[in-house]
Amino acid sequence: MGIIDSFLGRFFGNKSARDIKEVTPLFNKVREACDRVVPLSNDELRSLSSELKQKVKDAIIEDENEVASLRERAENDQIDLAEKEDI
Known about the structure:
This protein is an all-alpha fold. It has four helices and no strands. The mean pLDDT is 87.
């Protein structure tokens, strides 16, 4: 069994090596982001944080509006139960 495992390990690699290979690009992105953020002052970090919060709000505003619209339709008493379940 050891010979087969050894051969398959060389051919396919092992789980640890595959995991490291998969995570390495993400790790490199995090390091790059860290290198950009570390030298910033507290005021610059606050500003950057505010910009990020605004980007998130802008990105989800359409989804929030759709949820509000669907909630309003679902709470309407004049539509039947089957349609409410579909909503």
